[in-house]
Amino acid sequence: MVLLILFVLAGCSDPNSLTPEAFQERIKATPDAIVIDVRTPEETHTSGIIEGAIVYDFKSGEFENSVEALDKSKTYFLYCASGVRSSKAAGLMKKQGFEKVFVLEGGTTEWTKRELPLAPIK
Q: CATH number, domain at 99?
């Protein structure tokens, strides 16, 4: 029974959700990659951001309008603290017609557990 549950859960994983290592590698391998941090300004200033990320606060109420103007042909990599907000943001972007949207599994919490770097916000 336990194996059946694990098998079902593994089959339900989102193919656009990437482990921290895969997220980092895909960004490096994607020439037009745009990295978006959907955390609040307070969170980004406290812990830093993934190098080169743009901050679009998902909770601000302006996220939908902000991303609406972005180029839908580009590839986007979204992250937050745990993966919840970035998954919601990715869903919203997909509804707006964005096709290449990826999410960091576990957010910056998992990123830092794997000792991957965060840069101070400028």
A: 3.40.250.10
Domain-embedded: residue 5: no
User: Which residues constitute the domain of residue 50?
Assistant: 15-113
Measure Cα distances from 99 to 58, 71, 120 in Å.
19, 11, 30
- Does pTM top 0.85 for this prediction? yes
Q: pLDDT (tens digit, 9 = 90+) per residue, 29-59? A: 999 999 999 999 999 999 999 999 999 999 9
Band (pLDDT 50/70/90 cuts) for residue 15 is: confident
Q: What are phi and psi of 51, to 5 degrees?
A: -50, 125
pLDDT reported for residue 13: 57
